[in-house]
Specification:
Its EC number is 1.6.5.5. This protein has 324 residues and is an alpha/beta fold. It has nine helices and 15 strands.
Length: 324
């Protein structure tokens, strides 16, 4: 048996309830993990609320965690009992003390990366790699606009983009968060709740606009994000913290021959080679000091609901981690 957070019906944070669930032995190609740190993401809030109905109920939410291998199923040769591993998965099951996982989803953790750091970095780092190295390959001289730049995900494109030689403009919801975004590498920060940030982006860039806008806010920012683009710029909508974006005619992209992308990180790591390549890039950037993680909220697994409430209130900066 294992303690786990079980979601039986969509709803508010109170829908996340700690229960005991059965955990069997790993089958062919699987490993049994005793988890030490579980990453909490806005994605999890979407699943809990029912905005994303991709977790069959009742089910255990959670898409990333780290821990140690307790047992190997038949045919597993890439890992050893006792080894530290991390993973992300669209099949859920992360909010638990122990779980069975396909070995193909796990990556070995480098010694210089602690368990809480890894749970704070893996999904967010892979997302940043996707944004800056896959969807729009950032190069020196680019201008990028990063929304929610003080957040657990948003800080990483700021750091990585600046390292790559881009001019980084961030947005934040308060003066305190603006300072955090600057500390994370943003050259300029706009308080987006004051409205009209596209005009400010154009003023800061002499009318050029941004080569890429990384927007995980969604409804509140989408229209202004589109207006912030340079010629041939790409709007990367990778989340919807403020709600889903309204339908948009393709002609709306024609003003500056722009592109729109809606990437999903699981698609970029859907095979072992891609997962290994991106994880290697993330771990190398961390080891070089390009990426740093700030874990501002650590809670026991049983308090997953409180963690979700804090995320949805936008009361957190940095990463949130549950400790089984």
């Amino acid at each position: 048996m294992s303690a786990a957070i079980v979601l039986r019906a969509h709803g508010g944070p109170e829908a996340l309830v700690l229960e005991d669930v059965a955990v069997g032995a790993p089958g062919p190609g699987e490993i049994l993990i005793r988890q030490t740190a579980v990453g909490v993401n806005f994605y999890d809030c979407y699943v809990r609320s029912g905005l994303y109905r991709t977790l069959p109920l009742p089910g255990v939410p959670g898409i990333e965690a780290v821990g140690r291998v307790e047992a190997l199923g038949p045919g597993v040769e890439d890992f050893q009992v006792g080894q530290r591993v991390g993973y992300i998965t669209g099949a859920y099951g992360g909010y638990a003390e122990r779980r069975i996982l396909p070995a193909s989803l796990a990556v070995a953790l480098p010694d210089g990366l602690g368990d809480v750091e890894a749970a704070s970095l893996l999904l967010k780092g892979l997302t940043a790699c996707m944004l800056l190295q896959r969807v729009h390959v950032v190069k020196a001289g680019d201008v990028i606009l990063v929304h929610a730049a003080a957040g657990g995900v948003g800080q990483l494109p700021c750091r990585w983009g600046r390292h790559l030689g881009a001019t980084v403009i961030g947005t934040a919801g308060s003066a305190d968060k603006a300072e955090r975004a600057r500390a994370a590498g943003a050259h300029e920060v706009i308080l987006y709740r004051d409205g009209g940030f596209a005009e400010t982006v154009m003023a800061l860039t002499g009318g050029r606009g941004a080569d890429a806008v990384y927007d995980a806010v969604g409804r509140e920012t989408f229209d202004q994000s589109l207006k912030s683009l340079a010629y041939f710029g790409t709007l990367v909508n990778y989340g919807q913290a403020s709600g889903p974006v309204e339908p948009m005619p393709p002609a709306a992209l024609g003003g500056r021959s722009n592109s729109l992308s809606r990437p999903v990180v699981f698609h970029f790591v859907r095979d072992r080679a891609s997962l290994n390549a991106m994880a290697t890039e993330v771990f190398a950037a961390f080891a070089a000091g390009v990426l740093r993680v700030e874990t501002t909220l650590q809670m026991p697994l049983a308090e997953a609901g409180r963690a979700h409430a804090a995320l949805e209130a936008r009361a957190t900066v940095g990463a949130t981690v549950l400790l089984p």
